[in-house]
Amino acid sequence: MLNLSLWILLISVAMLCLGHGLSGSLVSLTANQAEFGTDVTGFVMAGYSAGLLVSTFVAPRLVKNVGHVRAFAGLASTVSTAVLLFPLWVDPIFWFLLRVISGFCVSGMFIICESWLNASSSNRNRGTMLSLYMIVTYGALGMGQLLLNITDVSGFVRFIIVSCLLSLSLVPLILLPSEAPSVEGSRSVSVDEIWRASPLAVVGVLACGLGQSAFFALGVVFGLAKGLPLVSVSIMMALPPLGVILSQYPIGWISDRFDRRTIIMLLSFLAAVIAAITLAGGYYLSRVLLISLVTAFGVISLPIYSLVVAHANDHLQKEQILGASAKLVLLYGVGSLIGPILVGDIMRRIGGDGFLIYMIAVHAALGGFAFWRRLNNPDQHKAQGREVMTVSPVSTPAASPALGD
Questions:
Q1: Which of 56, 256, 309, 345 has its CA 20 to 30 A from that of 164?
Q2: pTM
Q3: What is the pLDDT of residues 135-184, one digit of tens each?
Q4: Other CB atoms closer than 10 Å to residue 3's CB: what's the count?
Q5: So what CATH class is 4-176+186-404?
């Protein structure tokens, strides 16, 4: 059983994810309504990833200097203020800077929550805690998308709701009856070391960053370009993370018993096929079928990141895992910085279908690389006793102090 402190922390995570889930789609929607253009919208949305990259270096040091609660409070107050500034001045450069601030603060808040959850759990309940954490994370992220349907004539209401949710995520941490955990260091690992251990991990994390960031950043714009009303767009963006709650465990279970490269390859190709079917269907697809295909795409593609991280861990020494996690997040951040900009430019040139063409290219390339690795290294070994890590870059598996090294 989880103790009271862990349940309180999960409530904080839920509030954070609700606000975070609404924020990204809201900014993308508002940018589309302001006629920024998909390339400019992609640039604005990429600001979050730029902030994430900075956060992986700065946030852990901030925790070391002032502690978990004070660091979380400072970040929550800052991002709550930044969110309220979006509707005050509708300008792409200004919004990009606000997205950088949001990415820095929200990523830092996730780092603090995850490191606290990890330190507060034991070997007896860590598996249960991680499962509940992923259910809360994906569930709240999905539910946050549905808040797009709140009536907002002034253009301020939904931003105020995001600000309130992010601010309220601080309250459970303040009320925790136990002290925050101490922060310990860990061994740093270079990208070159990870590449030598698992080239697929490096390519896979970059591909996940390129694909998943574009999906969440421009998915709303794609839905609107397909003629969906806002209610349907919000459902389309909510169902994939909600569906991952059901798909993550069985996919991880299968990958623990077979060559992970094969599972990564099959999921990548299947995601590309689903995107291709959606592209081929065009405007002939009914609203329900389009949403179903996008949901299937998300349910299949989103768990790939955790498989890639687990594959890296299969080939690393135990003392390298935390340090490698830090570098994998940085690689994901690089991909997620490029993804929205790239897909936004493609959509500007060829329209909404560019979103699907981009997804096909990214996932087909990842599947092809995984296939190539299997051909060139058929004698695959897997470390014994290491089950797939239930992690998601939507939060961040960078809860390790190694990020501050």
A1: 56
A2: 0.83
A3: 888 889 989 999 999 988 888 999 999 999 999 998 888 877 665 555 55
A4: 13
A5: mainly alpha
